[in-house]
Amino acid sequence: MGTRRRRHQHHGRWVVPAVAPAAAAFAAAGLLLVVVAFHCFLSPPLGDGGGGGGGGGHRVVRRPNPPFLLNKPSELRRNVVGTIDFAVPSGGSKLGEELWASKLASNFFGCSNATKAFADAKAVTEPNRYLMIATSGGLNQQRTGIIDAVVAARILNATLVIPKLDQKSFWKDASDFADIFDVESFISSLSNDVKIIRQVPDRNGKTPYPYKMRIPRKCTAKCYENRVLPALLKKHVVQLTKFDYRVSNRLETNLQKLRCRVNYHALQFTDPILKMGEMLVQRMRAKSGRFIALHLRFEPDMLAFSGCYFGGGEIERRELGAIRKRWKTLHASNPDRERRHGKCPLTPEEVGLMLRALGFGKDVHIYVASGEVYGGEETLAPLKALFPNFHSKETLASKEELAPFLSFSSRMAALDYIVCDKSDVFVTNNNGNMARMLAGRRRYFGHKRTIRPNAKKLYSLFLNRTSMSWETFSSKVQTFQKGFMGEPNEIKPGRGEFHEHPMDCICAKTKGRSGHSKPHLSNRIGEAMEKHASDGEFDWRDLDYGENTPLGRDSSNETDSDMHELEDMRSVWASYREHREAKKKAF
């Protein structure tokens, strides 16, 4: 009873009777823990540790529990007191140059020249066959459509009309082909491969109206001959609508190499875009000799389409759910499953922790290519704390300099594309259209370091990071990222698609000289890719920023009468084939 605490009122005060020494020590220890906890609560989420600012300082990282996001400052969902995860070393890795570039990169080179068996366009282009293309999606999704349009024209021995860009996507960008790409370079660079014209020539003083049709995704060469050629033979002018991912990965080598000649040589941005992009690169170089470019992919559209959850509570579910309703064909999401399977983008904080764990120091300069980040500055704050040298086109250039581009999402995306392409290290937060196009380009031009998170493995690591030291966490990140660092030989059958892994266009150097040896991976990879990404199996990573049309299996826009007419065209095609075979036998 002597240690029992009782209250006595004495001269208007609360008096606590004396207690045993052991109990007093216990109470003092408890008070000390309360003070420490209160101090942690008041500390910023990410702050430099170690007073005095001397070398060897550490950055203290706290994980929100649960994490938070916001849409507007007034709607900030603040988390409870976070837990100290670990101290992040300020310095970089001892790996040095190996972190910035692959030792094996110099063993490979881009090789896209046509073989002697690939006839000149003048010899194979048939008169009175004109192919028109209406692209779909954002800039990089449209870029894939333009590349494949050239291949489709070659398969059909048709003249290609300069493709029509999508002006009806979410951002309603009014740019046409000539506003973004150099038309003269496009036509002249491909003159030996495909005849390209600006518009269909008039007939009897009138512009011919094209026969419009849509073909399945991943259409093979035989598919084009069976579906499109009959229409060309009868109608002479055909327009393929919503032309995105409409050409198969399974093409013969010369057609794959044609894809590379279009993508990496013929398709150049206009001078105003190139000059502005180069200026941004120069300004990054002036700040630091080398830099990382990060394609963040944390825009509201992306997060909504992914069906993932990022800890923002009912407000996040309501906001992203409303955006998700734009895609009528999407199934109900299972956020936990999506994250376990590696189909969710990392948060900006997680990307920053991954890069620091790989060995990039906090003094590294980062260029962030992104649209509107969900959560704004509050979401970006942890990444900026991990990498204070944080840049974007908006911070590098004045409003006056960006004015000609600001109203056009495709031109703004083109500026990001240029800076990311010229960066020393490119980091893609999962696998969207821009990331795939840039990954392929960087492989073609010297296997420049390209990092993509192994989101499936990193998920469990981030989930349990409070239970390990920084050294353990860093070691596990480096282990999990093997095979995801852009090394020349890391691609495995069934992963990716041709624009990301242009294997037919990459050759290995022979000893002592460069030679056009075999591509360093089998062509059968294309077939494995095809099975892996079959028609109708697209996920959120296939969505380009600003696109608002549903992906996956699409229905034809042909009417019943169109179908009957198409059958007539196929009959014409059958007769044409018989005639062609008869001519071959005559010779």
UniProtKB/TrEMBL annotation:
Q: Which GO terms describe its molecular function?
A: glycosyltransferase activity
- Which protein, by its recorded name, is this? O-fucosyltransferase family protein
Q: Which UniProt keywords apply?
A: Carbohydrate metabolism, Fucose metabolism, Glycosyltransferase, Membrane, Transferase, Transmembrane, Transmembrane helix
Query: Which Pfam family, just one, is annotated for this protein?
Result: O-FucT
What domain of life does the UniProt record list for this protein's source? Eukaryota
Any one Gene Ontology BP term: fucose metabolic process
Q: Which InterPro entries match?
A: FucosylTrfase_pln, GDP-Fuc_O-FucTrfase
